Amino acid sequence: MIQHLIDGILIGAILSLGATGLTMVMHMLRFANFSHAELLSIGAYSALVFEQLFKAVLPFTAGTIGPLSMTWALAVAMIASMAVTGASAVLFDKLIFKRVREKGEELSMVFASFGLALIIRNVIGLVFGLQTQLFSKDIIFATVLSRDPLIMVKPDQIAVLAITLLIIFALHLILSRTTYGYALRAVAENPSLAQVNGINLQRMIVTVWLIGGGLAALAGVFYGLTNQISPVIGRDLVLPVFAATIVGGLGSIYGALLGGFIVGIAANLALTVLPSGYSPSVPFLIILAVLLVRPHGLFGEERQ
Amino acid sequence: MTGIISYLVFFTTMASILAIATLGLNLQWGNTGLFNGGVAAFFGAGAYGTLLLGGTSQEDHLGGFELPYVVALAGGMAAAGILAWVVGVLTLRMRRDYLAISTFGMAIVFENVMRNAEWLSGGAKGLRGFERPLRDALGDGFAYNAAFLAVVLVLLFATYRFLQVLVRSPFGRLLRAIREDETAARSLGKSPARVRLTAFVTGSVIMGLAGGLYATFYAFVSPQDVLPTLTFQIWAMLIVGGAGNNRGAVFGAFLIWAAWTASGWLLSRFAPVDAQIYTGSIQYVLIGLVIVGMLLWRPQGLLPERLVISQSGQAPS
Amino acid sequence: MDDAVLEVKSITAGYVPDLPILHGVSMKANRGEVTVIIGPNGAGKSTLVKAIAGLVPVSEGAILHETVDITNIRPDQMAMHGIAYVPQIDNIFRSLTIRQNLELALRHSGKEGPAKLATLLDQFPALRDKQTARAGSLSGGQKQFLAVAMALATSPRLILMDEPSAGLSPKAAQEVLELTKSLTEAGVSILLVEQNVNQALRLADHCYILAEGSNQTDGKASELLGNQVVADIYLGGRRLRAGQ
């Protein structure tokens, strides 16, 4: 039970990062972006490439950081991957979403995002192979926190959680203390009013894709670090990430952060009663429960 | 020669069944603007429902009610309708995104449950033990397949006619009004949520019919038949054919099914042996490119929607 | 003394190309005056102010503000031209606090920001007392005050207001309209769209009546107020009885 809770918090942290970017894009551009979870894959794979690159060029970065399986090379690769993934998100918008939007076919954006997701996922599979990969093949032993009940945590997991909480805190400071943060929230809540209030929407759209892509890259690397990397990361995480945004309320950044943890924990606790084969179904059950009890989520407001 | 003819019969049967599902999606998306991200679930509900109700009794799972075929097929369609009603009631009052996400989630759950719930669906190994109707009279060979194709074609035509009449009726005009401008439709005193629910359930029942026919044809269904791939294929059919145009939906279904089977055949024949596991990926990239490419360069499809003008509604000069 | 701040010259505009809502609408607004636009539902009143604000594309004609051509300006650059726009509904950020809403509106004010914030809060005591509350929790009238305060943050010379009294209680509506009138004392010009014809005509200086996307008539507000014919024809037969 406690082990499930801990695992849930960990996956929850990853979902939070994914859902934050998704909810901002979804609210600002008014469409359910089914390709957002593929940004996690792009993040994980580009970090993999950069890590190899840094290790080859700068051999001294191949050492691991303290008790973690993460190398110094991966730490730097993570930052490079955030930049690449953010840039990819901006590029996809420019190549596809912006054009569909400008044709006035806003409803078709969902279709476009599905098509894009299919393309990204399968191109990754073609380039990197369908097999799963790991950042590190070294086996890192989990620290046993308690024997009865048996609770184990890996150092990597603690690091992932700590970094996520740090980023969430930094995001919180920006959103609650700076006018730039207010502008981001304003755009998420009401894009046309934001524009009337002097916010340059085009520039903000680029910013939001960059932030969303960067956070998704982190989430992807963290997922790869605590689980494994495979071309189907996006397929497996798309529904949980959507569930997190719905739990939090579409458009609410704080809602998405909290929603990620709620979905992660609930999905893991559900496995104490459900056979593990059913775990892909749990996010949908959470969505159904939210729609029944509180359709607009924790922080969402009723708006068309 | 007979090989080619029997393949053509097989191909036409499959394409026609998928065309029925595409027509169902056209009612939802093309005419009403409702995004169904889980076509496979409603198709699957029809398939599983039909086999469970009409199959022979099995030891290890539910079903085997041995109901008359028509009743079983209707039951499968009803199962699809019930699923659609549940999702629709919960989401159609809200932003369109919710329907997209919920239907997508529904399809994942449907496949997941069919794969795991052995007591219900036979699990990963699928659902067997279904006697195809009139098999005693027609046997299992070409005659049966030709007769089945005839039935499928009749149903395809009936569905097409039904939808043509529906979209020209006042109800059809209401659907388009809601798609174009919900606020205006509401000000006419109509409840958009209820109208959309009716359209959504009707479209899903049609998908259920397609699923029922599909399962009947193979006398078998497994989780492999209700993967998200099916949803993508049916979308591509509608988008390529032309959303809003029923003839386009049928045309798109045949075209995409031909392209899909042809590309699969080419890849399996000419791709190197060690690359064979990647042929699926290539096909998915292609279908993704078709969807995105159409939206960018010809969003109205190959056969665009022709706006129906009511008799009194001649455009003012 | 025709001192036009805003001049709309025969514009054609609409949300979708080839489907104009406004057909060659012209109007002027004078400095320091309240100009009101009235007309039946669907007349294109809101579309007109949105077109001025750059939110609805203008396909023909021109819009001049202080002799500068502002046809199809980018909405986020309105403030640079000294224009502010208060939309009809959803005109504040509900998830931000009142103070955050104001700080957002003031964010290009640089060093003057804090002083301006203090001035605005003095001007709207009701907002000062609730600075840290979420704007979504305000009453209808208070929301309009906040929206007006946000518009004032950029020190505009012209404010476009779309039905500020819609959905308010008669008392709150009166307060908002009186506030609007009081702004002109500082030399600000107001272009107001109103459904509340009776009250609007009483505080306005000049009035334009639109119907079906075209100019119908215009004149001094005080003269139109008593004009039975105008009331019957253009306002759906609604009587404009004094004292109602």
CATH topology of chain C: Rossmann fold
Oligomer: heterotrimer
> In percent, how much strand structure appears in the residues of chain B?
under 5%
Question: Which parts of chain C are unreliable, with pLDDT below 50 for 5 consecutive residues or more?
Answer: 237-244
Report Rg of chain C.
Answer: 18 Å
SSE layout:
The complex is a heterotrimer of chains A (304), B (317) and C (244).
Chain A: H1 2-29, H2 36-57, H3 72-102, H4 109-128, E1 143-147, E2 150-153, H5 155-177, H6 179-189, H7 191-196, H8 201-226, H9 233-248, H10 253-270, H11 282-293
Antiparallel strand pairs in A: 1-2
Chain B: H1 2-31, H2 39-54, H3 69-91, H4 96-116, H5 118-121, H6 135-138, H7 142-168, H8 170-180, H9 182-187, H10 192-218, H11 228-241, H12 246-270, H13 279-297
Chain C: E1 4-13, E2 22-30, E3 34-38, H1 45-52, E4 58-65, E5 68-69, E6 83-86, H2 98-105, H3 113-123, H4 125-128, H5 140-152, E7 158-162, H6 170-183, E8 189-193, H7 197-203, E9 206-211, E10 214-220, H8 221-225, H9 228-234
Parallel strand pairs in C: 3-8, 3-9, 6-7, 7-8
Antiparallel strand pairs in C: 1-2, 1-4, 4-5, 9-10
Descriptive account of the structure:
The complex is a heterotrimer of chains A (304), B (317) and C (244). Chain A is mainly alpha-helical and 304 residues long. Chain A contains 11 helices and 2 strands, in the order ααααββααααααα. Chain A has helices spanning 2-29, 36-57, 72-102, 109-128, 155-177, 179-189, 191-196, 201-226, 233-248, 253-270, 282-293, and strands at 143-147, 150-153. Mean pLDDT of chain B is 87; it is low at 308-317. The radius of gyration of chain B is 20 Å and the shape is globular. Chain B has helices at 2-31, 39-54, 69-91, 96-116, 118-121, 135-138, 142-168, 170-180, 182-187, 192-218, 228-241, 246-270, 279-297. The longest helix of chain B is centred in the N-terminal third of the chain and has 30 residues, at 2-31. In chain C, 32% of the residues lie in helices and 25% in strands. Chain C has helices at residues 45-52, 98-105, 113-123, 125-128, 140-152, 170-183, 197-203, 221-225, 228-234, and strands at 4-13, 22-30, 34-38, 58-65, 68-69, 83-86, 158-162, 189-193, 206-211, 214-220. In chain C, β9 and β10 (214-220) form a beta hairpin. Residues 237-244 of chain C have low confidence and may be disordered. Chains in contact: A-B, A-C. Chain A binds chain B through residues 26, 31-32, 34, 96, 99-100, 103, 105, 107-108, 110-112, 114-119, 121-123, 125-126, 130, 238-239, 242-243, 246, 250, 275, 277-278, 280-281, 283-285, 287-288, 291-292, 295-296, 303-304, and chain B through 33, 35, 37, 90-91, 93-98, 100-102, 104-106, 108-109, 112-113, 115-116, 182, 232, 235, 239, 277-278, 281-282, 284-285, 287-292, 295-296, 299.
